Amino acid sequence: xxxxxxxxxxxxxxDADDPFALAEPVLxxxxxxxxxxxxxxxxxLALQKGPDQWxxxxxxxxxxxxxxxxxxxxxxxxxxxxxxxxxxxxxxxxGLRYLRRVQMCLTYISESMPMLExxxxxxxxxxxxxxxxxxxxxxxxxxxxxxxxxxxGECLQQGLAVAGLSLTDLFVQxxxxxxxxxxxxxxxxxxxxxxxxxxxxxxxxERTIGFNVRGTQGxxxxxxxxxxxxxxxxxxxxxxxxxSNLADEVL
Length: 251
Ligand code: HEM
Fold this sequence. Notes:
This protein is mainly α. The protein is built from twelve helices and no strands.
């Protein structure tokens, strides 16, 4: 039997007989193994400054946390966009599966924040000197999320209009409109996780550079403190109060 590599890089049956053949890379690209070539580890690991370029060794910690957050946010934005397309096409359950991934991405970026508190506030001041005017307001991933999230509100409004329901009706009759209700709950959950991230981020910022100072783009830290309660879907929070008031009347 002759050895062959298929156009898509898959190995032939011959490879399975030859233990050395499986260690041989079959993919194109830099790196000595298919692991490196597929994940593009050479380029990925070259994306962080090396010791000869550091102003402070904690630049590596800072960059790794930040770059991984950007990757999770990239995935979150992509899954949100796809989830939205499915919901808009009337395939709400399928869309919810992708929106759950967005939830998880937001959880991961929040959970990575404590690593930043491992830097001393003084060491961070050295790292900060390397950032120029770099600011989280220019985060591509966060800005993509911000762009797409409001469209979920439009989907819910359309769903309510088609069913002839008010938001309060939906919550009272949740079981009859299960998919729409699940969408509403997913939305409030995303809102809550975004607020949790903003809260976690603000605490890290306050603990690291203080409250009565400005960020690298001149924003007072108290401004990001004030953004913590910003809600994408205020109606979904207000409806809870409406339900409490309704319960006082009818239950
Ligand atoms: C020690 C670590 C950090 C510090 C001191 C810090 C500081 C700040 C400050 C001061 C701002 C206000 C804007 C300005 O820079 O003037 C800001 C905004 C922001 N930062 Fe950070 N940050 C840190 C880590 C992170 C990480 C890991 C992320 C992950 C993506 C991030 C994402 C953002 C985002 C998205 C905003 C905009 C906030 C919003 O719109 O609510 N930051 N950050």
